[in-house]
Amino acid sequence: MKVTFPHMGNQYVGTKVLLEEVGLDVIVPVDCSKETLNIGTKYSPESICLPLKINIGNFVESINEGANTIVMIGSCGPCRFGYYSILQNEILKEMGHEDVEIILLDAPQGNFKGLLDSIYKLTKTKNPYKIINALVKATRVLYQIDDLEDLMYYKRPRQKNIGEADLYYDELHKKIRGVRGYREVSRLIKETKEKILRIEEDPGREVLRVGLIGEIYTILEPSVNVYIEKKLGEMGVEIEKSLRLSHWITEHLFLNPLNITMDSKIRKEAKPYLKTMIGGHARETIGYGIHYAKRGFDGLIQVYPFTCMPEIVAQSIMPQVEKEYDIPYLCLIVDEMTGEAGFNTRLEAFVDLLGKRKEMKVS
Amino acid sequence: MKNCYLGIDVGSVSTNVVLMDDNNNIMGKVYTKTQGKPIDAIQRGMKEIKTAIKEEIKVKGVGTTGSGRQLAAMIVGADVVKNEITAHGIAALNFVDGVRTILEIGGQDSKIILLKNNVISDFAMNTVCAAGTGSFLDRQASRLDIAIQDFGKMALLSKNPVRIAGRCAVFAESDMIHKQQLGHNQEDIIKGLCDALVRNFLNNLGKGKEIVGPIVFQGGVAANVGIKQSFEEALGQEVLVPPHHDVMGAIGCCLLAREHAAKGHLTEFKGFDIINSGYNVKGIECQDCANLCEVIEIVQDGQIMARWGDKCGKWNSLVKKKEKLA
Ligand code: SF4
């Protein structure tokens, strides 16, 4: 059995470790590229949101490399992600990949049993210690990689030689593919972190702070948000993301049952504007927007895939937040037609605007 | 010898070149179609400017903008490279001090820029819909068999404008054909189209934004008196159109370049000779990793000048290293 899974930013590091630690053969899909999207666009319904198209591309590229099993996470929300796995199953069948098995890991709503059952099926062992051990290690590695990403957010706008931090960072991702298991991956991350920490900074840089909000997939996967974090970083902007995977796991696996989550705080922030769950991360988008504004960020950028329903709702609310909290807000919508030039223009103009505002406040 | 500044705006539809003197007078301006060949357009524009100017000039600074700004900067040697929004904002401020709203409609793009205390405070650009842009109007004009220059004037003659669905270009077009078949006269249809375009613009870009005067209307479409009037009716305010409304991006670049030079920076300008150089642009697909980046290579007279488009920086830095060696 050769297992693969769809990409979503750095998630692959954790998933790879998880599957390898339970003893599976893993095929990490090649990095999302234009070709990935081309394949996905060709075989998916046109009006479906972008992440599904990329997923399909990932699957096909991995199948071509020999994968015969796909692990997917499910969802219970009312947005279209809820039926991704079903639709993807159909699409793959139609393409003639009947022999490829899809195993669905449903987000555990406070109970681990369903999740464990799927994992049993996948690993064909019933040894819970092995599985829990692997889960713990995967979570740990996710924290490490997210931690490294934070460092990247910090370094990019401050590094003396623009682009240096990303050299090490890209190298890390190349190396991770070549090693196996928690120990090796974790060691690589640590090494890279040390290198990046040592990068020389330019103390004279004016750094702006921007909160990145929006749909989780587009925030996390750099190939679909047109490398926004790198671009912003190199324009002198430090970012913070409203959603991250390590955080998501802690919330959903450990804290949610105890009801002490950060999310509930964020939801409270969003409440005056949006009272109920409408699927996706609309409440988080609004809530974090407010959270960042209160913390004195210079601006907010929302990114979401074209036709994403919850985010459209959030977008229509954001101008109110923008006004009430006096924080500039920019919305970027991506799909397979996204032109990089227009994207860059908007980002650059927005950063210009933030810079001028800050200047005026200071003087 | 007169000091002056060069501004170049390379858009997907048109390329504009403006030469401005120290007193902000426009000494020359060229508006030419890009037609998918930005380098030709830049060379053509520079050449026309050069031949039109008879005095001795000294270029003290160069600015570029538009979607082809990087390319243009590389070729002419620019000192300032700026996005269209900032460039347009600066140009409008120079035209009306204290301007609060800029409506800009070009060939492919339209935007709205809001200012407060002479600083850009908000902006929006059209994302998916083309019903609010110049090329849409061009197409409808040719469908009605009317020269685009006469289009606006005809709208002013309308007594009974028809209402045309303007939510998106596809609807607008089919609705217009429908109204034509119903037998409405041309003036009324054209006026309806102008209204629809303005409605689309304000709904798409102006949503939730407070539109305060003074309002400046610029971009190629600002020449269209029909659209101007529709804006004035919809907003209930006077809308000002600057004399060089079609090249405001390039003018903004001149102003930015002037500011840059005033700070004591010497120009990188490569001179007008570049119009005689032969340029080649090659697209190569890098096979080194799954990104399969389309790397663009600019070759001037057989020598590689620049490369970009790679995600990893490998090709980019190749050139940089060479520069250092030389
Ligand atoms: S240029 Fe770099 S990122 Fe792009 S395909 Fe080549 S190796 Fe990959």
UniProtKB/TrEMBL annotation, chain A:
- Classify the source by domain of life: Bacteria
| One annotated GO molecular function | kinase activity
Q: Answer yes or no on keyword Transferase.
A: yes
Which keywords does UniProt give here? Kinase, Transferase
**Name of the protein in its database record:** Putative nucleotide-binding protein (Sugar kinase/HSP70/actin superfamily)
UniProtKB/TrEMBL annotation, chain B:
The record's section on InterPro entries has: ATPase_BadF (IPR002731), ATPase_NBD (IPR043129), CoA_E_activase_dom (IPR008275), Dehydratase_Activator_Redct (IPR051805)
NCBIfam families xref list: CoA_E_activ
> Lineage of the native species?
Bacteria, Bacillati, Bacillota, Clostridia, Peptostreptococcales
GO molecular function terms listed in the Swiss-Prot or TrEMBL record: iron-sulfur cluster binding; metal ion binding
Q: Could you tell me the keywords of this UniProt record?
A: Iron, Iron-sulfur, Metal-binding
Q: Which cofactor does it need?
A: [4Fe-4S] cluster
Task: Give the source species.
Answer: Serpentinicella alkaliphila
Spell out the Pfam families in the cross-references: BcrAD_BadFG (PF01869)
This chain belongs to the protein called Putative CoA-substrate-specific enzyme activase
Q: Where is the ATPase BadF/BadG/BcrA/BcrD type domain?
A: 6-257
